[in-house]
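Example: Na(+) H(+) antiporter subunit E.
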Amino acid sequence: MADRKETKRLIVSLLIRGLFFSFVWWSLSGGAASSWWIGGPAVVLALTTSIALLPPQHLNGYALLRFIPFFLIRSLLGGVDVAWRAFHPRLPIDPLLIHYRLTLPVGLPQVVMINSVSLLPGTLSVAIDQQVLQLHVLSGGRDYLDGLQQLEQRVGRIFGHTVRGETIDETI
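Written out as structure tokens, the predicted fold is:
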């Protein structure tokens, strides 16, 4: 049964990506039919490379739709928070480097998490070593931990994983 789901996921992914790469080629070539002598192999090469580098993933569409407004709202709040801190007369920052243990699996789920961290107010990904994410935070306190855990849970739901990360240590 699992093999059928994987096969179906691969076929759907091939169709969607194939249509996308074909559309990109068609757009770049101005729709010229004669360009497909080059475009056909280019699309096949792009499709093969795409599948090799980013295998099809199980995505929860509902969780993804719920993540979009969360992402937009947090991006806005993060920008407002950083701007407020930068223009505040007392410059209320207390920067820290923290280490946060991810429980998301390696691959696309971690990439989405790492790239989304900067949307949280005053946080920025610095590095990742195995499952430990190093972050720069503008302000101490523990507010960032709730935000990180909430973000990791939301990203985990998109990929069908239950997660619970934790802070390992904090340094100045």
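The first helix runs from residue 2 to 29.
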